[in-house]
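Feature request disguised as a bug report, sorry. It would help if multi-protein outputs had a clear separator. Right now it looks like this:
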Amino acid sequence: MSADVRSFFGRPIIIGGGIAGLMTALHLAPEPVLLLSRTPLGADASSIWAQGGLAASLGNDDDPEVHLADTLAAGDGLCDAEIASRILHAAPSAIETLATLGVRFDRTPEGTLRLGLEAAHCRRRIVHAGGDGSGREVMRALVAAVRSTPSIVVVEGVEARRLAVKENAVRGVWASCSMGSIFFVSRRVILATGGIGGLFFDTTNPLGSCGQGLALAARAGAVLADLEFIQFHPTALDGPDRPMQLISEAVRGEGAVIVDETGQRFLEDLQGAELAPRDVVARTIWNHLSNGHRVFLDAREKPGTTFARQFPTIARACRDAGIDPAYDLIPIRPAQHYHMGGVAVDGAGRTSVSGLWACGEVASTGLHGANRLASNSLTEAVVCARWVAESVAGTPARRTKPVVARDYPSPDPISVRPLLSNALGIVRNGECLKATLRALLPLAEGKDAAADPAAVGLMIAIAALLRQESRGAHYRTDFPDHGVVARRSRLTLDQALATAREFASSSTLEGLEQ
């Protein structure tokens, strides 16, 4: 192993084997790169579970400016309009790139791309592959492409634990594998680690996605942005399995409706009804459940008997639960689905730490704002991977001295999960957030397996507490209205710890800047 590690000196290191990581590696070819994956490639990435597809303005009645308008509306005042415009104008060519790499997109009998409709989109612009198996099909093609690219070395079963940083510049990665601790020397590191679903009880993400990329960046001193904005998907299959089976918004796009146990369509009065923005639909369902009702997705009329053909993955999950969507109501409840916040990056994916980039869900580009527009996330990962790769390739490799391997515990969110599930769900309030800060602080300052998940949770809780308004996916019962000025939040771990300690000692936030 030591000889192999020495042979990798200086290569760009990509941490994460989902769509963002794989696309970045492919765009860097033929430059040699090292891709670290905690599990066998693609086995535990959120990307492979994605059902909704990729959003791009490909229809004759659509263009990037219309797509941008929908994105900005969903983002509730917090999107970076310049970055969003740049990403969405690049989206159609990104779809072409994926097709060139072998992704088999769904097409009409005439051979044109079949376009679906999802919430808060005013046009059909969602490109699918294999119906509701879009993520799986994209990952199949990308894994095959990566495996056949000689310049990409994939090291599986290796978990990044810390970034070595000196004078605000990356020097390498401490990692762990079955053979022990390893140090990979590099001054160019790309985070592509996915989201935070494993920090919550109810999630549609792999439980192994517990914010480790955020922890790596935070421990390295990087600035994180918009951490308080966590999207809860309105329609997860309500049952005992965790993670929960997602029921794609595309089902509602094909005409399915949401009802309660009486048959009432209680979303009818919302603008957009079942296809209102996700935060609105999720919050309305949550309130209905809290009032003692049960909530169901009714797909019996639309899509009806074509359900299994259009949505084979969802149909299979329903059958496993004893439900036939063509004839039965599907019990649903909201579940954590996507994190709009992440490591703050510029248009090239650069973070505030020299030599560190971030791409995909772990990054905060400014595209999503306070509430991600459906199916923009995979598009963002594919588009931004090219820009990250161009930036990395344009940064010359520099020699650095190897460092002795150090051992860090594997993160375990089990003690953090109940705290975040209770305080940082669909509906939040200040008193609960304050109590959560008190509980998280000693865990985040510790040295055991809970420390990294607790540090991420602490930063999210601080950001949520300081945002004294309701906006997008962040809803405060004690501050139910919009603030006067829309502002993005930015935070480092040191700032979060200092704020938490001050609060813990004074039991007040008076005088702290927002």
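(second protein starts here, but nothing in the output says so)
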Amino acid sequence: MTSTQPTQRLARIGVDVGGTFTDLVLYDPSRQLALTGKLLTTPEDPSIAIINGIKRILSEAGLQPSDLHSVVHGTTLVTNTIIERTGAVVGLITTSGFRDTIEIGRETRYDLYDLFLEMPPVIVPRARRLEVAERVTSEGDVLVDLDEDAVARAARRLVEDSKAEALAISFLHSYRSDRHEQRAAKIVRALYPSLPLSLSSQVAPEIREFERTTTTCANAYVQPLMHRYLDKLEAELVELGFAGRLHIMLSSGGITTVREAKAFPIRLIESGPAAGAMAASFISRIAGLDRVISFDMGGTTAKICLIEDGQPDHKFDFEAGRVRRFQKGSGLPLKVSVVDMIEIGAGGGSLARVDPSSGLLKVGPRSAGSVPGPVCYGRGGDQPTVTDADLVLGRLDPAYFLGGELELDVDLVRSAFDGKISTAINLDVDEAALGVQRIVDETMAAATRMHLAEKGKDPRKYTLIAFGGAGPVHAFNLARLLKVEKMVVPLGAGVASALGFLVAPPATDMVRTMVSRLDAVDWTAINALYADMKAEGVSLLCEAGAIEEQITFKATAEMRHRGQGFEIPVALPSLVLSDEHLDAIRETFFMSYRAQFGRILEDSPIEVLNWRLACSAAGTDISIGQGHAVADATLEGARRGTRKVKFEGHGWLDCAVYNRYMLPAGCKFSGPALVEERESTCVIGPDSVVSVDSSRNLIINLWFVN
């Protein structure tokens, strides 16, 4: 699928595979048409739902697969593989004396007082970690030549005796000089040409041996699986008649090529959640909002991300497969660029239960997923979920779930609540369902407060943008708990993550390590680093469909006071630097340092470790509302009637029910109300005013929160 981009294939499709639903958005710029789709995920083979969803949305648009320019896809396959430990058999070849780096780690305990502390299992057990003689200094000079025969022996032992399906090579200080890793790779490829191979100097070319080696091993661990998955998906798309390009979402929020995704699949570990953040960024820009809390609640998890000036926060490290889901330090540390967000085990499918030891009601983090799904789906689930509670409380219309495609069984849900929850805690079904909702909303609010507090931010100064299938159902309560005065719910909120795939730009992040005091930097060497990174970024983005003249670059450096153990990112004024920029760089460092720590150390020497370059092309502007525009729409025409909904502190209230697609721009109404669309329902509580803006976003003002 490396064809050129013919002008007649203009339509694009974004596909987001979640734990419960697979979401799709189709955009055809020739007709200014946007259509959405949602169907249950097929966990045994995610491509089944993808292909079925593409067929369906193309049929609704009156298009053929040959009319498609591209498909943009994100997947949770990488993170699920690491969490479930279902990846490949991996072997590691490393420098003599450093065999146990990934097991020793940083010699820290994530819980000092737990005598039975469980550490995250390593990706590569000791028997499959082999050493070879070689040594490069931290300046990139060769201290000990590579023992090429030892590399060949190690490769044969790992592949033929240990049955390794992929190899990782991580040598000491290869971030400064990759000559030994490159030579070792040539030896291995000569022996096993088709064997997946990951080099640390390519996967994570930056300082810190433990994290770099762990990231390289994790990349090798998921590489064979991602090769098979993407090859199968490409083949099925070709069989469907698709002749355009398949693009993949990165964890950083950019899109890349299939080739890059196969080579560095670890960079996709947060690709699905990143798409939601990119959608919220896009919505914040068109709505003119500069401070936003992105709230994406799906069937399995809720994701919270801070967005300022139309851009999400980023970070360059990530923990995967935590032994304790919310305990920092209990997972595998990875050096990858990701959108900075928190994920909470709180989704529509989160299971509610009564803890037998304490007798307390608990919700999540386990989810019913799509199989068997919530009780109300009637697909075999017998444990009540958050979605079941929403149905009991009147928030969902049992006859209009997924636009009426999936009828929900209220009686089955009430029976499950009665048998599993209500009797055990001595509450009627309605109060038990309200308790489930209260717990999940308070859990999300507490996590959001903590996330913002760590950044020194006050949620009351932000606007909440809510999306995901369950997001608009719970956003009003979340906003109330956070004391947020305004929230925005976009049209098509239930599939907004899929929209994120289409508005995200082709983008990539690169890094090189060169440690130096700021006042002694070799600017010639640094400028050469940036020139190399720029050329590499331009080549990759052009392959992903970007126009070279439209690519923009953002240079940053990770700096610290000398002797400190951690760095902060500092924006650089140019890609070509000299001593003339020293004062500006120093002042920017002090400004960032003060913002994070509340003070500066003016007399302490400043040290630079990593030099980063973010490359990005222009994204696509889309109006998702145009696919559902209704001529002569009026507020009264949009009203479907009323439904009773139970609100905490108010009891059962009569709520006006509106058809989302019939609400015209400029109309206003008051809560309590329900606004229904095919993929989600927006629940609007009392003491609020709703307006519809020109982009058909719901703007909900909560005037009672203060």
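Even a blank line would do. Unrelated, but nice: Residues 512-610 form one domain.
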